[in-house]
Design a protein that fits this description.
- The protein is mostly helical.
- The protein is 68% helix and 5% strand.
- It contains 34 helices and 8 strands.
- A 5-stranded parallel sheet has the order 2-3-4-1-5, sandwiched between helices. The chain has a 3-stranded antiparallel sheet with strand order 6-8-7.
- Helix 5 (124-127) links the parallel strand 3 (115-119) and strand 4 (138-143).
- The protein is globular, with a radius of gyration of 31 Å.
């Protein structure tokens, strides 16, 4: 690392504290690297982590907690989600509850040797949930605070990083200027180091300027900085370190061109911590080529850090300084206009993202913002859109918050309205919930009832996906009330459909059917064929659940014709899957096989692994029905792998249970019970009482065939208790089978 001073003593102290004897496992698991701003804590921690990486063969986890940034710090729950995804947890399998996230994190790292680096932590509470509960893992925390609570209550060792020694500071100056300047006087280097407070951040900025101006004598540069320091002394600063850093910032800032200085101060208004060249162009209202050029200039002067190709960030101290300059040198109108430009860029980027990832979802009508003449993001492929989202996701959340905080409520609710169609596909649920809460408040501020209703429906969907069904029902009720109040009949259909889906999940099938029939009637009045098809499809699902497969087939055939004519492959594939399921239960196995093969061909042709994963489960059931048992194992196992990648735990369990059924058909009862037990564990985790009851009964049958009658009885009794509150025909039939089996076994 250019300009890194070895800090040999500190590195050796970290080795002693954290590693102990080289042949022994680490004796403790936590250290705090504390020190004033700009002293080089992060550089030290990152350098040490890189140096000892071979001692942590299971990897290193890093997160900047941004405890001292102007904006909101990173919450522990957000950092946990980042860590879980880095550890391979699929998006849909990341728990919503903060404690559940922390528990999963601790279980995943148990027995592994991982280094966790928590940078810029403001409080012990921010760090504590991210500390693994095992001595094999080491956690390194950097902070301006001493974090005494971690020392006293968590046994952390503290390493305080002081300013560089005089010789170290001079060495850093020489290192950065090497190749640009020669024969600088040692005394002048010492003076420059003193004026920089011997703080690495200030020293690097000063050294870069000296390197850029090699013909300017060092004493002249030092004189300028001394004058700047005198100015800060005159302003009665009472913190020598802070004054030294601000003096260097001001000295370097005044040396920037007018264009570069304007960029520097406007970039402080960017809502997120990391910004791209294109976002910078939008913020500053300049061509992309100019933005790239000026960003490179600022990075070269150490006023910005380039962290990836085309992506930059501030050191938190420099961001604060840039904020000050923006307040002092930019008018209220100029700052507001810059913020509006960058928010417009992000909201149009989100709109392009929605168009690529979820093209059939309803769109928000956006202001063209032609007066800004911005090159809004656009995507030619889904992969390109997904890559942009992965980079900009934190900024989209930050932009939503920034819009609301600035009283720009129109873009705030627009962000929420657009993003919920993205979050449905890509997550994460935490962002979805936060953005939706902001959007609901913003819609209420401007009195936009339609937007409020849409976002209440979005929040209801979040609740349903996180098994908070009582809260979900409440949000759906509020949404439906508003849509009826404003006469939004199509919105009413959407709300009723969501409520029906919630009741399907509850297995309250009578109420679900009533809601879907109401959807169908209103959609018919509106002559909206798409929503008629959606309602028919859900009525078909409801009919199948109550074992009325003749009616289910009728709905599916009608829907298949519609979706084929409308050119909607998802709808056609879903209809074929519904047909296959009902044909199988009606004993029409050839028709079932033909339908499911067509459905899976649609999924593969469209490279949609989510559809393929779900429909493969039914394919496995049909293959078993026609005697293709070995083939069914391939279908079930591929479905389980794909569902695990997608993060749908419930459907993963259904695939695993199917594999258990296939092994039973092959009379391999030990493998059968193993797969059923895996599925039972997942259904218990997801609290799905119906599927738990079904799977416990399958496990009981395999245990009985294995010769374990006692376990078979226990599992049957558990299954009977699990389905006790369901009274639909399918539940009644399963209850009858279990009771009969229990009586036979007596």
């Amino acid at each position: 690392m250019r300009g890194f001073v070895n800090r040999v003593a500190e590195l050796e102290r970290l080795d002693r504290i954290l590693l102990g004897e080289l042949s022994q496992p680490p004796a403790i698991k936590l250290a705090v690297v504390a020190g004033t701003a700009g002293v080089g804590k992060t550089s030290l921690a990152v350098h040490w982590a890189h140096r000892v990486r071979t001692r942590f063969p299971d990897g290193q986890l890093y997160v900047n907690m941004r405890g001292y940034d102007p904006g909101p710090p990173v919450a522990a729950t957000q950092a946990l989600e980042h860590f879980l995804r880095a550890l391979g947890v699929p998006r849909g399998a990341v728990p919503v509850d903060a404690e559940a996230k922390a528990s999963l994190f601790r279980s995943l790292v148990a027995g592994r040797r991982i280094l966790v680096l928590l940078d810029n932590v403001a409080t012990a509470a921010q760090a504590r949930p991210l500390i693994p509960g095992t001595s094999e893992c080491l956690t390194l925390v950097t902070s301006r605070s001493r974090l005494s609570s971690l020392v006293f209550h968590n046994g952390a060792h503290r390493l305080t990083v002081d300013m560089l020694t005089e010789s170290e500071a001079v060495a850093l100056l020489r290192d950065v200027t090497a190749g640009y300047r020669a024969n600088d006087d040692e005394d002048q280097l010492v003076e420059l180091a003193r004026l920089c407070g011997r703080l690495p951040l200030a020293l690097r900025i000063a050294a870069e300027r000296a390197a850029r101006e090699p013909v300017v004598p060092l004493d002249a540069l030092a004189r300028e900085l001394r004058d700047e320091s005198s100015l800060w002394d005159a302003l009665a600063g009472d913190n020598d370190d802070a004054d030294a850093v601000r003096s260097v910032f001001a000295w370097s800032y005044r040396a920037l061109t007018e264009e570069s200085a304007r960029f520097f101060r406007l970039l402080a208004l960017h809502p997120g911590a990391v910004f791209s060249v294109s976002a910078t162009a939008a913020l500053t209202g300049t061509p992309t080529s100019d933005a790239r050029r000026v960003l490179d200039v600022l990075a070269g002067a150490h006023m910005l850090e380039q962290i990836a190709p085309g992506r930059y960030q501030f050191h938190d101290l420099l961001r604060f300084y840039a904020h000050d300059q923006a307040r002092e040198e930019e008018s209220d109108e100029s700052r507001a206009e810059a913020l509006r430009r960058v928010l417009a860029w992000y909201v149009h980027g989100a709109d392009s993202l929605q168009e690529s990832l979820n093209p059939m979802s309803p769109r928000v009508v956006l202001d063209s913002n032609a007066r800004f003449d911005l090159p809004f993001p656009g995507f030619s492929t889904v992969a390109e859109a997904s890559e942009w989202y992965a980079l900009e996701r934190p900024n989209l959340l930050a932009a939503t918050r920034a819009a609301a905080d600035a009283g720009l409520y129109e873009p705030a609710w627009q962000f929420a309205s657009i993003l919920h169609h993205i979050y449905r596909i890509l997550g994460p649920l935490d962002d979805w919930r936060i953005v939706t809460e902001v959007g609901i408040k913003a819609a209420r501020q401007v009195g936009n009832k339609r937007a409020e209703a849409e976002l209440l429906e979005s929040m209801a969907t979040v609740c349903v996906q996180t098994d908070q069904l009582v809260h979900g029902a409440r949000y759906f009720d509020m949404c439906l009330a508003i849509r009826r109040e404003v006469g939004d009949r199509l919105g009413e259909v959407m709300a009723l459909n969501g409520m029906g889906q919630l009741n399907l999940r509850r297995r309250e099938l009578t109420e679900a059917g009533r809601l879907f029939r109401e959807c169908l009637a209103i959609a018919g009045d509106l002559d909206n064929q798409f929503w008629q098809a959606v309602a028919r499809g859900n009525l078909g699902v409801t009919a199948h659940q109550v074992m009325d497969n003749v009616t289910a087939v009728e709905y599916a055939v009608e829907n298949l014709d519609f979706h084929k004519s409308a050119g909607n492959p998802l709808g056609a594939g879903d209809s074929l899957h519904a047909l296959a399921r009902s044909y199988r239960e009606l004993g029409r196995h050839a028709d079932a096989l033909e339908s499911i093969v067509q459905a899976i061909e649609i999924a593969r042709k469209n490279d949609n692994r989510v559809w393929e994963a779900y429909w493969l489960i039914e394919y496995g059931h049909i293959q078993r029905s026609v005697g293709q048992v070995f083939e069914s194992l391939v279908s079930y196992q591929r479905a389980a792998v794909l569902q695990r990648e997608h993060g749908d735990r419930s459907r993963e369990a259904q695939a695993l249970n199917g594999a258990g059924l296939a092994y039973r058909d092959l009379e391999r009862y030990k493998e059968s019970t193993d797969f059923h037990r895996f599925a039972v564990a997942i259904h218990r985790e997801t609290r799905d009482q119906w599927l738990l009851g079904v799977t416990l009964n399958d496990l009981a049958i395999s245990c009985e065939l294995l010769g374990d009658a006692d376990m078979a009885r226990q599992y049957r009794e558990g299954g009977l208790a699990s389905i006790a509150n369901f009274d639909d025909p399918r539940a009644s039939e399963l209850r009858r089978q279990i009771v009969q089996a229990l009586r036979t076994a007596e």
